[in-house]
Write a structure and sequence with these properties.
It is built from 3 helices and no strands. It is an all-alpha fold. The protein has one domain. The longest helix is centred in the first third of the chain and has 35 residues. Keywords: Membrane, Transmembrane, Transmembrane helix.
Length: 136
């Protein structure tokens, strides 16, 4: 008995069933993985820079942006570079998720990636508020 999802084959039997409605495109899967990685990297880098900012405030009595670059420890520049790479990965994940949803109709993975990308800036602001004022 044939279902509506199957079509007749000229050689007898039936052709393969139609594609599932909830198919995931590889671009959607890649965007989910990249969005999750960017989420973790942004969280870690913002926490590192926020903790360094709190340390600079307690040591020098000035905010991180008020201290001349020559007086900053080298680890802070590494933290800022890692944070820049994390935000670049976030931006790439956001673009890939939008392409996966709009062009490839990958609704499940694309929507998950968009949700993770939408939550990332809020997490970054919350972590910055928690870590940059810690111990002050």
């Amino acid at each position: 008995m044939r279902t509506s999802a199957e079509t007749a084959s000229p050689f007898g039997g039936s052709a393969r069933p139609a594609r599932s409605r909830v198919a995931s495109h590889p671009l959607g899967v890649i965007s989910v993985i990249l969005a999750g990685s960017a989420f973790v990297l942004v969280a870690l880098s913002v926490a590192m820079v926020g903790t360094a900012a709190a340390s600079m405030l307690s040591i020098y009595g000035r905010r991180l942006v008020e201290i001349p670059f020559a007086e900053l420890p080298p680890s802070i520049s590494v933290y800022v570079v890692v944070m820049g790479l994390a935000w670049a990965a976030w931006l790439v994940a956001l673009v890939l998720a939008v392409i996966a949803v709009l062009r490839h109709r990958c609704l499940v993975c694309g929507s998950v990636a968009l949700a993770v990308c939408a939550a990332t800036p809020f997490l970054a602001v919350a972590l910055w508020q928690l870590t940059s004022t810690a111990g002050v």
